[in-house]
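Worked example 2:
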Amino acid sequence: MEKVKLYIKETVHELIYKVSWPTWEELQGSVMIVLVATLIFSIAIFLIDFIFGANPENAFFKGLLYYIYSIFS
């Protein structure tokens, strides 16, 4: 049990005194980069799914795969 107490004490000490935490401005910049990248990737995946996916319920555009599948069926 003494080893567990020592481990927790050393962990807390390292987190308080040895870890270099980002500043508020650095954190905001990193969050904005993650949000923009997530938005770009989600739009790209949506467009790929919309263009190539087979969706016969969609009245506007059924997808390229739907038309390719309909050729062979």
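The mean pLDDT is 92. The chain is about 75% helix and 0% strand.
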